[in-house]
Amino acid sequence: MFSAYIDAALLCYPVLAVVTVQHPKMRTNQSNLQYFVLSFLSLIVLRYACSAYFVIPHQIPLTICASKDQPNPIASIYPSNATGTLNGTVAIIPISLELARQIIPPQYGILEHAYRSLLPSFPQGMYPAIVQALHDHEVQAFGYKIEDFSRTGVEFPFIDLLNDNHSSFKWAPSMLMSSGHDIALKGAMDYGTNIFPSVFEPGCDAYKAVPNSKRPGTTYFSARSLEPGAASLTTLFSSTQEEVFPLEFFKNTTNQPTFADGKSCDNMIRLFNTSVTTGSFGIQPVKGTVRVKLPLFTGEREWTNVYGLRLDTAFVENNYLSCESFRGYSGHV
Ligand SMILES: *[C@@H]1O[C@H](CO)[C@@H](O)[C@H](O)[C@H]1NC(C)=O
Ligand SMILES: *[C@@H]1O[C@H](CO)[C@@H](O)[C@H](O)[C@H]1NC(C)=O
Ligand SMILES: *[C@@H]1O[C@H](CO)[C@@H](O)[C@H](O)[C@H]1NC(C)=O
Ligand SMILES: *[C@@H]1O[C@H](CO)[C@@H](O)[C@H](O)[C@H]1NC(C)=O
Ligand SMILES: *[C@@H]1O[C@H](CO)[C@@H](O)[C@H](O)[C@H]1NC(C)=O
Which of 238, 244, 241 has its CA nearest to residue 214? Predict the structure, then answer.
């Protein structure tokens, strides 16, 4: 139990250290950095001392996960950043602009011209909501790895958070996330995200093949909140030849700085050029059905003929940044 808190402290450490060292008022001399490096190291020692001396013999691990995911290919390239891989499906759910306007808080504009410049033929009066169903694998910083977890939700890109009619942000108000993973759950709650601790199927992978399916490459994914009936999200996707939305659109939306309550922003940089994406597995266009129960929508909603991509990407994540610092930011892809 105690070691879980040290785990959390360790994961947050690089962020704390950098924030402190970079904060102008605190940039007095080298001693701050030295202090952080030293106390970070002592936390690591404490962490390993804990697991060495306080292992409860019959304790059942959080999850016994044997994921099929390929290893994190960039951990050694960015050793002092939080990195990992995100395997799963990202798809576009066209909803009416009217519904989008009802769901998205009224103080935030919707940058319709921004998504139309990427998707010129997107139907009039419609808005592209995003559904992501992902497995986070080998998330780590400073060689310190946390356990894998899964998460899913509906996200709203092209939000004019700064009211400049230009910089696109992605609003991710709610999320279903692996129950029992205290670090991930707390990490997301700190953004003001409405979190639903959930059970996932499959438990340790991004999706699973549907046996004997008539359609080629049919896979499913399902998440259900522990709180009965509070939230659920299930997907059923098959491979398709149709590429309705260009890859650039997915790159653009998945890389927009993300916020929930708007007090801080998450800069999740998904890289589309590493071996987990460009390797034999590649990027597969998919078409299918998404069923969602979330407080954002009334009742359970189902969308059919949803187009998306099944892929794995490496990522670098910069957490809890000022949203203002992304004024004019146009992504990193
Ligand atoms: C992504 O997950 C699927 C399902 O578990 C797996 O088959 C595939 O190999 C994974 N892709 C990579 C690149 O790890
Ligand atoms: C790695 O972290 C540092 C410090 O927070 C940051 O300045 C840098 O941009 C990050 N690297 C990437 C690739 O995001
Ligand atoms: C926002 O920018 C777009 C594209 O430059 C422009 O067409 C639109 O009129 C602007 N909206 C406002 C409210 O200024
Ligand atoms: C994402 O799309 C917006 C709107 O067209 C554009 O302003 C921005 O430069 C794009 N970003 C990238 C990295 O392509
Ligand atoms: C992948 O893209 C990132 C960001 O655009 C770049 O910094 C990096 O060098 C590229 N890596 C490879 C292996 O091409």
Answer: 238
**What type of residue is 194?**
N
What is the spatial distance between Cα 25 and Cα 46, in angstroms, rounded to a whole number?
30
Q: Give me the architecture of the 82-326 domain, per CATH.
A: Beta Barrel (2.40)
Measure the CA–CA gap between 142 and 128, rounded to whole angstroms. 37
Q: How many CA atoms lie within 13 A of 141 on its CB side?
A: 21
pLDDT at 23 over 50: no
Task: Choose one of 118, 160, 247, 252 to mutate for the ligand 4 pocket test, by most ligand atoms within 8 angstroms of C-beta.
Answer: 252
Q: Judge whether residue 5 has pLDDT over 80.
A: no
Establish how many alpha carbons lie within 13 A of residue 194's alpha carbon, considering only the half-sphere containing its beta carbon: 13
Candidate of 159, 160, 168, 248 to mutate for ligand 4, largest count of ligand atoms within 8 Å of Cβ: 168
Residue 164, classified by CB atoms within 10 Å of its CB into exposed (0-12), middle (13-18) or buried (19+), is exposed
Distance from chain centroid for Cα 295 = 19
CA distance linking residue 259 with residue 321, whole number of Å? 10
Cis-peptide into 202, omega within 30 deg: yes
For the entire predicted model, the pTM comes to 0.84
Residue 180 DSSP symbol: T
